[in-house]
């Protein structure tokens, strides 16, 4: 009888592959209402002579079943673990995928250098929108309706009254309206003109500068800009101011520095002149100050503006502006 149970049990356990099935099997044989348990309960119904004999065999059978279940449990667990190791195996010797670390874009690098120099000189950093009102981009800066800069050829018009800013100078107006003089800030950012060739892209970067206070003179402007050029390009670089015209400054100047490539001897980059033009500047036109409600009897000041691409091209000796925007990492990696 018990031999039959053992046999049946052996068959049952042989087909089991999961821990939950094994548990069901345990319940079936050893549980409260299990086969072995009910036999043990029935011991009370046999004769006192038979009892120890039957009890011994039952206990042995129970022990046999318990051991078999334990052994099965271990083998299932082992099997599951080895399966897991096989399927979740990570080969740490496989070479990793190379992710090229990014580098700062050369234009951002130059832009940050320019900003840092002016911040050290006490200028704040001001920002304005790239989609700008015609009023701030032109009108308030004393640029009349028939000025060539307003030509459809140059300016991206969104509507008659809204443009993509063609320079960072509108930030002068916005910055002055926001606060009372004295003011001293720079305005870096993107500007847009409908133009594309080896030295022009439809989007490029400028840094504007503005300083308004009592008794500001042209020599203050010269001092600031010469210091800037020396910090940017080196102490010994010669700087000259040439008379020029901008509607929003009077007098106006274009600022040149000695050609850093040929050291002033004359080369292709400086068109044999020995000089490179790098900024526009001037004393802020009183009409501009009036447009923002500043007292022109008391306050005056200077402004300047420069193109970041041009400075980067000179500094890194790049002869095609479009390289900055092609996103060729062989080019970008060099900076
Ligand atoms: N806004 C001028 C341009 O884009 C550059 C410029 C010239 C800015 C003279 C100034 C300035 O603030 O005083 O060409």
How many β-strand stretches?
Answer: 9
Helix content: 25-40%
Strand content: 15-25%
Q: How is the biggest beta sheet arranged?
A: 7 strands, mixed
Element order: H for helix, E for strand: HHHHHEEHEHEEHEEEHEHH
Principal-axis shape: rod-shaped
* Helix segment tally: 11
Number of domains: 2
Give the name of the CATH superfamily of the largest domain.
Answer: Bira Bifunctional Protein, Domain 2
Instruction: Please identify the top-level CATH class of the largest domain.
Output: Alpha Beta
Could you list some keywords that capture this structure?
335 residues; alpha+beta; BirA Bifunctional Protein, domain 2; 7-stranded mixed β-sheet; two-stranded antiparallel ribbon; 19% strand; binds 3,4-dihydroxyphenylalanine
Summarize the structure in short.
With 335 residues, the protein is of the alpha+beta class. The chain has eleven helices and nine strands.
Describe this structure in words.
The protein folds into 2 domains: 2-87; 106-332, BirA Bifunctional Protein, domain 2 (2-Layer Sandwich), CATH 3.30.930. 40% of the residues lie in helices and 19% in strands. It is built from 11 helices and 9 strands. The strands form 2 sheets. Strands 1-4-5-9-8-7-6 form a 7-stranded mixed beta sheet, with helices on both faces. It has a two-stranded antiparallel ribbon with strand order 2-3. The longest helix is centred in the N-terminal third of the chain and has 38 residues, at 50-87. The radius of gyration is 43 Å and the shape is rod-shaped. The mean pLDDT is 93. The site of 3,4-dihydroxyphenylalanine has 11 residues, from strand 8 and strand 9.
